[in-house]
Amino acid sequence: MSLRAKSFIKRTKKGNVIKVIKEHYLRDDIWCSSALCESCNHTDALLSATPRATESFRTPHYIVPDTNVFMNQIDIMEHPAIKDVIVLQTVREELRHLSMPIYNRVNAIVADKNKRFYAFSNEHHKETYIERMKDESPNDRNDRAIRVSVKWYANHLANGKKKAPITVVMLSDDRDNREKAKSAAIKCSSVRDYVADLTDSPELVDMVVSAKDASEAQAKADGKIEYEEHLSQVQIANGVKNGKFSQGTLNISGHNYLEATVMATVEGKQQNVYIVGRKNMNRSIQGDTVAIQVLPKSEWKKTASVAIEEDEDEATEMKAESENTDGMDVDNALPEMPTAKVVGIIRKKWRPYCGFISKKSIHGTEGSTSAQNVIFRAMDRRIPSIKIRTTQAHTLAGQRIVVAIDSWPTTSVLPLGHFVKTLGSSGDKETETEVLLLEHDVPFQEFSKRILEDLPAEGEDWVVLDKHVHNERRRDFRHLNVCSIDPPGCTDIDDALHVRALPNGNFEVGVHIADVTYFVKPGMPMDEEAAGRGTTVYLVDKRIDMLPSLLGTNLCSLRSNVERLAFSCIWEMNENAEIVNVDFTKSVIKSKFSFTYEEAQNRIDDDRMQDDVTKGIRTLNSFAKKLKQRRLEKGALTLASPEVRFNLENDSQDPVDVELKELKDTNALVEEFMLLANISVAERIYSKFPDSALLRRHPTPPDSNFEELRRALSEFNISLETSTSKELSDSLDRAVIPSDPYFNKMVRIMTTRCMLQAQYFSSGTEAEQDFRHYGLACPIYTHFTSPIRRYSDVMVHRLLEACIDADLTYGQELTDKMRMKELCDNLNFRNRMAQQAARSSVELYTNLFFRNKVVEEDGHVIRILRNGFVVLVQK
Amino acid sequence: MPYLSQAERDYITEGVQSDLRADGRGRLDYRALVLETGIISQANGSARVRLGDGTDVLVGVKVEIDQVEPDADNVGKVVCNVECSPSASQQFEGHGADDLNNELTQALQRVLGGPQCGINFEKLCIIKGQQCWIVYIDAMILDYSGNVLDTIFMATKAALFNTRIPKTQIQDLGDGEFEFEVLDDVEDAERLDGIENIPIGVTLNKIGTGHIIDASPLEELCTEAKLTIAVNKDSQICGIQKGAEGGIEPGLMSEMIQTAKRIGQSLIQQLDQKLQDEEQQVDEKRLNGENIEKLGFFAMV
């Protein structure tokens, strides 16, 4: 082993500079990992003995790509046709500096044993490590390091006692590097030339990122500049600091992709700033963090319709697009809105987009495979069309495909991108479901083997043992009449209830929640995966689980007549449903019945049923009503959102009927007790963890959110008071038109849309008065009752356990408010995505249901756009 | 202070008189010395000088960024500090070295702190009115065997020769505001401007009627008066400091200055030559991508 040192200069936060020296030990025991090699002592060779040979390189060979190949052509490297690749450490380290997302993707490929990507630590290898030469730039040094490693591999493989000839080929799009390689007798190729030889995967050619500089230079020479240059990062940072620019996230309107808003501080006030037109958006894309400069007041947006016409003129050349210019609100009463333009992009939010190729943009005869430029339209309407070059235009028509953006030069109206993969034909249920999962960034891959290893070894045979009852301070509730009430077909039963009379005339009411944290311990891969997923996603035809189904639908699920571990919240209540005492405990229960809402309702209604369980449900029902009454008096809102249910045909899973979900008393029964449990738990964990309790708040919506609805209602002489939830609730109760029984429901649906999103937060990051839950009208709230399908509840379980068990040792994950905040941010994001995915899924099935079908129903127009309107259909 | 017997004192004084010193040198003979630069990897520049079999000095140069002084907003600074290691001599234990530390620090600072040292202080300013580089020179006396100040000067010159200041890039933020970025590549770092003009010190010790250079500890004890003269490569005097209690007649003084100029110039020439040779060797190795190994404390006379 020999020691080397490398040094670099670093600037500290305080502004000083330090020279950092890293010691570097070189080794002679890093193996080549080729299955053919006999001189290295590796046991599990990753690189196969029979790699691919191509037309140009007839010897079977491994591929060694340089850094830029990964940077620009990562989609190609991820393609299944590319195997037996050596990823050099030099390349990986450069990637880590250049782009974290790409670095992570490369790591993911390396981790996938089937791809046979071998990470070779050339920087630690005695024979491939090189010192940087004097006057050599770091880039040149790294290129040389790559060449030296390729050369080493070539010699190493040639010298080994080989069974078959084998070699290595370097991939590089840098001509200079290739020249140098050739002069050192290293086999090399550009990516385009290499994949052109892979005739079994013709789509690879399309995936090659176009050499952008050529077309860019051409367009620049033509003097065709469409956009202003972005300012430099430093200018932006300084501008934001001295208040010349504001920073915010670009949010493009779902109805008009040429109009966007950015939440930013303008004139000392946090408000929505409009950005109108492609020029002003200046190549920023939905979700980008942008720097904006507010335009002079004379250019502020007055009415939406004026703004869009202006832009249409500019965009005449992009015919395919202008017809897509969706309507705008015809709403002239709006005051001037602060309007701005984008001067720079601080963080790009580019990702692969699902969508389709615009048929109109395809030229040439059917079956032609000559390369042509086509326009790709993303499913997400807020994403601009993307220009891609493809040889398979005709094959791809009518398919759902994934496309990535490569660049958006100032000379191009549209961003330039490349084809990544085909998902399937459009309109196909499977394909469309995959599209919507991808579009909402829902992790839907199977649980990995490593995660499944965290499950109890007994598998389905796991049972509650005596030790659970005696050694873990669990209370034994197995004798109680516990039962669960859920929607039909529910397999992940989170909660169960019981009630019994106490000798003193009061009642004991218990809510029992599945004890997920018994199985999911902090730090387990399963826990990390669950924290990443955040929530179970419910689609119309399937469920993307947060936890492996063995836990979710079996070991944790509080099914009837099996003993299960639970986390219980036990209240002592008087006959007015007022809480006398509350206690939390881990427990063991044995549920007696799993009812559906309907079954439970039938039992309540059926006077002949006089057994203990039914009586219990009746007691709970009367308590729930009292609780609800009290809650409503305090100002809790009864809102409505149209929830539909599809009746699916059993085999094909095609929707055969659609209906709105029906609510029964028993729905409210369960809901009431869950709310109560959540509130009780929230108070408890906040008292113990004032800085790091995971709570849920629902901010008071700003008055401006109701503006539109208020104006609409004023047509009916109905006023809307919104200053407190109590007033809103009262005015909603008054919003009745006797002739239209559906009217009130509709107003409630529309009020729901004025609300802000409820959010998870860490109690240390917000002021206590901001903890309020507006919709429920309670000062503190959290989620405790569904740990199987929400990670927030898992966390709350851990917090609560730490509250009740003084001996429990717990780590930073419960006390560090910043970590808790990061977790909350992720959960909020995942939740939002899950909701949107669920909604999109419903939309998808609605479309499938109405495909080739004409149905007549009554509806209400709820919104008028310039060239369309939105209708709410009741059924 | 250790005392010297009269007999010893006479022996040394007589010797100087007859141009023969206890270790066999003539009056103006220097002891052999070993010098190596770049041995502290964390520092921006460093050098170690071992003089004869005793005096051992390690100098490290570190550069830091700081705000400019309000009354001199376009220049950087050099800050010197000398410290004697307690292990170098029994006298340095406890607070024994405090006075010597101060004396040496002052002597070095007086010469290198101002324009006479030849360094271009304006080049050390990064943004006028805002930030500048401060060059911290830290000398450590590891072992003591006489003539320590001259050794420090020599090691300092070598360390400054070895010093590279990180390169900065100034960015115009508009509105007359500037910000700078430090390039992280050590290769981009630049040498100080005016390095060739940095003086070294030549200390002449007056013993009896003669004077000697490069005194050993015993000779230092016999010294009646001493004169340290800072000279640069062009024989310009950049500083004079008188030490010890005795006096020097004007005639002798000017003779001593002439001697110092002559010797100083030849020392600088030899030193520069060696420094360049060393650098060239290092560069050659780097050109071939070879590893550079330093001798460090294995280097002996």
Provide the structure class of chain B.
alpha+beta
Radius of gyration of chain A: 31 Å
Number of strands of chain B: 13
From N to C, what is the helix and strand string of chain B? HEEEEHEHEEEEEEHEEH
Mean pLDDT of chain A: 83
The share of residues in extended strands of chain B comes to 25-35%
CATH class of chain B: Alpha Beta
How many helical stretches of chain B?
5
What shape does the CA trace of chain B take?
A: globular
Q: Helix segment count of chain A?
A: 26
- Give the second-level CATH assignment, the architecture of chain B: 2-Layer Sandwich
Short overview:
Helices cover 33% and strands 23% of the residues of chain A.
Describe the protein.
The complex is a heterodimer of chains A (875) and B (301). Chain A is an alpha+beta fold. Chain A has five domains: 175 residues, Rossmann fold (3-Layer(aba) Sandwich); 115 residues, OB fold (Dihydrolipoamide Acetyltransferase, E2P) (Beta Barrel); 76 residues, OB fold (Dihydrolipoamide Acetyltransferase, E2P); 187 residues, no CATH class; 185 residues, no CATH class. Chain A is 33% helix and 23% strand. Chain A has 26 helices and 30 strands. In chain A, helix 20 crosses helix 21 and helix 21 packs across helix 25. The longest helix of chain A is centred in the last third of the chain and has 34 residues. Chain A is globular, with a radius of gyration of 31 Å. The termini of chain A are far apart. About 3% of the residues of chain A have low confidence. With 301 residues, chain B is an alpha+beta fold. Chain B has a single domain, classed as Ribosomal Protein S5, domain 2 (2-Layer Sandwich). Chain B is built from five helices and 13 strands. In chain B, the strands form four sheets. A five-stranded mixed beta sheet of chain B has the order 1-2-3-5-4. A four-stranded antiparallel beta sheet of chain B has the order 11-10-12-13, with helices on both faces. In chain B, a hairpin with a 4-residue loop joins strand 2 and strand 3. Classes of the chains: A alpha+beta (875), B alpha+beta (301). Chains A and B meet through strand 1, strand 2 and helix 9 of A and strand 3, strand 7, strand 8 and helix 5 of B. Chain B: Belongs to the RNase PH family. Chain B: It comes from Umbelopsis ramanniana AG. Chain B: Keywords: Coiled coil, Cytoplasm, Exosome. Chain B: It is found in: Cytoplasm; Nucleus, Nucleolus.
